[in-house]
Automatic annotation (TrEMBL):
It is a multi-pass membrane protein. GO terms for molecular function: monoatomic cation transmembrane transporter activity. Residues 231-315, 324-408 form the RCK C-terminal domain. This is SLC13 family permease. GO terms for biological process: potassium ion transport. The chain crosses the membrane at residues 12-36, 43-60, 72-95, 156-180, 200-223, 447-465, 477-504, 510-531, 551-576, 596-618. The keyword Transcription does not apply.
Length: 621
């Protein structure tokens, strides 16, 4: 089908530079962008789909099968995999949580000290531990810090995400984007690539300092207080009218029925959350429990549905809990907590029904936030996505199990966390060893080797158990990398990068080199805001290198501009995973990221470009 279509391209296409290969590759790029933006498929599935399409259309994309699957063995993919495992090992020891709590103790209830502590922990730590797990670890710590200090978590969680991005630019291993950019640049033969461990630390420090000052001043004033300072989830999620208690009358037709069969959920959007009988409350494994006359049932439903159910099933309305305290009064065994769907979670793409959430986790979902919208009805059939925040009612032991499950981020520290604190010295020594060996010049050792060696050391020292290696990896990220790396190969080998590079280089006729460099930073930031940061690096670096070549500029400077822009994406919650992790717990709206992030993006675009010119120069040495 494709051959005849391409054969009718005008003969002069070659003269204009628009060859059949370029056309096909650009169509594939457009397909990738549409899929990434619309989220029609999970990002990892999109990446693999693109990889398959590139290999099937190999005669035109110029991507062989070997090149198509090369992303799985690429040093960047393997390094990121190893660094995710190392980061998980550090989190198992409770080291980051311990540092966070010490800073929280220092901050107390002073809002500015709280913000300073948040930035002070997230920034530096993210330089040596992948910043995505750092944010996942610190979300509950910072949320508890805010509530204990009578502050709104909204004032701290977005700065937590942004600070982790600043810190991710301190070293090569701070973020997967840096590692991928280093590999792509090296494959393109850019002088100075692959990056050394502290290649851009000097500029990273400048970005961290300037960004932190912004968050402590202008950014803090722009941040909204979406989540109340006091910890009342019923009020925060506005579900007072969706949770109520009823008494089962003796003439009720549901007497003798099990909880699972009492209400027809195909007809009514309602759940029985718990049963109170003879002053005893039952909420775990109640689906098989039979209902008796006089039972007090707590229901999750809307007022209209409640009226219908009460009339049909012989139920009397007794009261409506107006606050979380009232809801939990006399029920010390359970509480409400927010749970964030992690990247790589088995629940992504599933529903509460398909995952048997209630039965599996002994927890009831009362409402959840998804991409800034609060969902309070028909919860069971809504497809879950990364970053969705569930408001869960569960007993303490169930919440502890959720906290230990890699599928979730529980936005509250467990009462008795089971950290391997005795392994903290081992974990620290391993991370220091990985960094030191990868950065010393006397015996050059590739970061892939040191990172994998660190993984082995984590297991041998007992920081991680062998069975935990696989669950430590964010497989979404790994498959994303493996899928988009061949796309970068296609863009380069087909001539698409050269074509776009010629077009962009034409701006050099009206702009100075520093202006073209700034354009690449801005464009990369905008692209990253709608697709993943890793995908934007693969798309933009080949074009940046080609443009630099045509302008006689320093290609390394252009690679750095793209890398920094892709790693510091503040304009939306979907461009960077850490933004997604704080989206729900912070109660943010999409516009909040634009309001706080846009001035920061512009500020750092100027600071970063000037820093690149100062440290590396825009012309070849």
């Amino acid at each position: 089908m494709l051959g005849p279509v391409l054969s009718v391209l005008p003969a002069q296409a070659g003269a204009t530079g628009l060859t059949p290969s370029i056309v096909v590759v650009l169509v594939v790029v457009l397909l990738a962008l549409v899929l990434f933006v619309t989220e029609a498929l999970p990002i990892d599935v999109t990446a693999i789909t693109i990889m398959v399409v590139l290999m099937v259309l190999g005669p035109w994309t110029e991507v062989s099968v070997a090149e198509g699957i090369s992303g799985f063995s690429n040093p960047a993919t393997v390094t990121v995999l190893a660094m995710l495992i190392l980061s998980s090992g550090v989190s198992k020891t409770g080291l980051v949580q311990s540092v966070g709590k010490r800073m929280a103790s220092f901050a107390g209830d002073n809002p500015m000290k709280q913000l300073g502590a948040t930035i002070g922990v997230a920034g530096p730590v993210s330089g040596f531990i992948n910043n995505t797990p750092v944010v996942a670890i610190l979300v509950p710590v910072i949320t508890d810090l805010a509530h204990e200090g009578k502050s709104s978590p909204s004032k701290l969680l977005m700065p937590l995400s942004f600070a982790s991005m600043f810190g991710g630019m301190l070293t090569l291993i701070g973020t997967s984007t840096n590692i991928l950019a280093s590999s792509v640049a090296a494959d393109l033969g850019v002088a100075g690539a692959p990056f050394s461990m502290f290649e851009f630390t000097s500029l990273g420090v400048v970005v961290l300092v300037v960004g932190s000052i912004y968050l402590m001043t202008v950014g803090y004033r722009l941040l909204p207080e979406r989540v109340p300072a006091r910890d009342d989830y019923l009020e925060e999620y506005e579900i007072q009218d969706y949770v109520t208690e009823v008494v089962v009358r003796e003439d009720s037709p549901i007497v003798g029925e099990t909880v699972a069969r009492a209400i027809d959920d195909a007809v009514f959007d309602a759940d029985i959350l718990q049963i109170t009988r003879d002053h005893e409350t039952f909420f775990e494994g109640i689906d098989s429990k039979r209902i008796r006359a006089g039972d007090v049932l707590m229901l999750r439903t809307d007022r209209e549905t409640l009226a219908t159910i009460a009339e049909l099933d012989g139920l009397d309305l007794t009261g409506l809990p107006r606050t979380e305290a009232e809801m939990e009064e006399g029920r010390d065994e359970q509480s409400l907590v927010e749970v964030v769907i992690q990247s790589g979670s088995a629940l992504v793409g599933e529903t509460l029904t398909s995952t048997s959430f209630r039965q599996r986790y002994d927890a009831n979902v009362l409402a959840f936030r998804s991409r800034g919208e609060t969902v309070r009805s028909r919860l069971d059939d809504v497809e879950l996505r990364i970053g969705d925040t569930l408001l869960v009612q569960a007993p303490a032991d169930s919440i502890d199990r959720l906290a230990q499950n890699p599928d979730f981020i529980v936005a509250r520290e467990p009462e008795e966390p089971s950290y391997r604190t005795g392994k903290i010295p081992h974990a620290v020594a391993i991370i220091v060893g990985v960094v030191a060996l990868a950065s010393q010049p006397f015996l050059p050792v590739n970061i892939v080797v040191t990172a994998l060696g660190g993984v082995v050391a984590m297991v041998l020292t007992g920081v991680l158990r062998p069975s935990e290696l696989y669950e430590s990896v964010d497989w979404d990220v790994i498959f994303l990398l493996a899928g988009v790396i061949p796309l970068g190969i296609a863009i380069e080998q087909s001539g698409a990068a050269a074509l776009i590079g010629r077009l962009v280089a034409s701006t050099g006729e009206v702009l100075p080199l520093i202006g073209v460099l700034w354009v690449f930073y801005i464009v990369t930031g905008l692209v990253t805001s709608v697709i993943s940061n890793n995908a934007s690096v693969v798309l933009m670096i080949p074009v940046a290198v080609e443009t630099a070549s045509r302008l006689g500029a320093n290609a390394f400077a252009f690679v750095l501009a793209v890398t920094f822009a892709a790693s510091t994406a503040f304009l939306s919650p979907v461009g960077y995973q850490t933004n997604l992790f704080v989206y729900g717990p912070g109660g943010y709206k999409f516009s909040d990221y634009v309001r706080v992030g846009a001035p920061l993006q512009v500020l750092l675009s100027v600071v970063t470009v000037l820093g690149i010119v100062f440290f590396w120069g825009v012309r070849p040495a």
